[in-house]
Write a structure and sequence with these properties.
alpha/beta; eight-stranded parallel β-sheet; six-stranded antiparallel β-sheet; 18 strands; 31% helix; 28% strand
Length: 329
């Protein structure tokens, strides 16, 4: 699945006033995981924001920043009323689970001791790991939201220790603003990470400080880490015929062929074969008929069917798509 980038419509742990505008920018760029905080906008606006995220085909996240029990209970009830897909943060698992138990909301609370606003993660690595193990072991907890970069500890070591200690996915939050930090997050074994303030304030290394440039750079860097960037460039058919090159496509081999005379009668035992005429004309002989394929046309020959391809004229350039033969075991 790859490392997940969650774009938070937040600055300094508050949902930004122009969240709706920034949301449309994110959706337009193909961001599919988008979150916000439970403070910064009225509840009705947060409901509208959540509805817009889902209407755009994205997964919605709400991150709790409440510091006391009463406020966290209110936030959990708000998450249920808003109808988010994922609830991030908070530390009072016993109070939150009964509230969201029947809602279908996935729950990723904070491990460790959280203080202050913006939130800070306190405690030693050992203490945070023990907290992570205890919380992740609870039924109804789907994973963890680790404020790694809000900790005074060795952050890479902390992330690796927590990810190794639990079997559930871990999201990393707090002050991730460089591709190097994203790479460290992936190397630690985390499932995803959040970025909010850095992108909204133009702090991420990109071609511009505007939000579209920031998100484009983050998406590109995550795609590179996930090995989701294509190394294949466009090619000219004329150059392909000149070089006689082919390309694999899943279980299909794309080849080029130049027919000058008649080919031998043959059939393919495994998979159909497509003949696309790039230049010239091709006569396809079958046992019951003949078909002429003109330039720009194609014909599919099913597996097991005997055929004989003949160039009409001096030569015919054909693009061939064939299923690869199964490998011998």
């Amino acid at each position: 699945m790859g490392l997940r980038f969650i774009f938070m419509l937040t600055r300094n742990d508050r949902t930004v006033p122009d969240a709706s505008q920034q949301l449309q920018t994110a959706l337009g760029l193909g961001v599919r995981h988008i979150g916000f905080k439970d403070i910064g906008l009225p509840l009705e606006q947060l409901k509208g924001l959540n509805a817009a995220i889902k209407a755009g085909g994205a997964t919605s996240y709400l991150e709790v920043v409440s510091l006391d029990r009463e406020s966290e209970i209110v936030s959990a009830k708000a998450a249920a009323e808003i109808g988010v897909d994922v609830l991030l943060g908070g530390t009072r698992v016993d109070d939150v689970l009964p509230i969201i138990n029947s809602t279908g909301i996935q729950y990723f609370p904070f491990p460790g001791r959280i203080t202050g606003h913006p939130s800070v993660l306190e405690g030693t690595i050992e203490e945070i790991v023990e907290s992570a193990k205890a919380i992740a072991g609870r039924a109804g907890v789907h994973g963890l939201d680790l404020l790694a970069y809000r900790s005074a500890q060795n952050v890479p070591k902390l992330m690796k220790a927590v990810c190794a200690a639990v079997s559930k996915p871990v999201f990393i939050a707090g002050s991730i603003a460089t591709p190097e930090r994203i790479a460290v997050v992936q190397g630690a074994g985390a499932a995803g990470f959040t970025i909010g303030t850095a992108a909204l304030d133009g702090k991420y290394p990109a071609d511009g400080n505007d939000v579209p440039s920031q998100l484009t750079a983050i998406i590109r860097d995550v795609a590179a880490l996930n090995k989701h960037l294509s190394p294949i460039r466009k090619k000219s058919l004329a150059a392909a015929f000149a070089g006689g090159v082919g390309e694999p496509l899943n279980n299909t081999q794309i080849n080029v062929a130049v027919f000058k005379d008649a080919s031998n009668w043959s059939f393919r035992a495994h998979g159909d074969e497509l003949f696309f005429v790039h230049r010239g004309r091709l006569l396809m002989k079958f046992r019951d008929r003949e078909e002429t394929i003109d330039q720009g046309e194609f014909i599919v020959v099913p597996r097991g069917v005997e055929h004989c391809a003949v160039a009409v004229g001096e030569e015919c350039e054909v693009l061939l798509a064939t299923a690869a033969a199964p490998s011998a075991e």
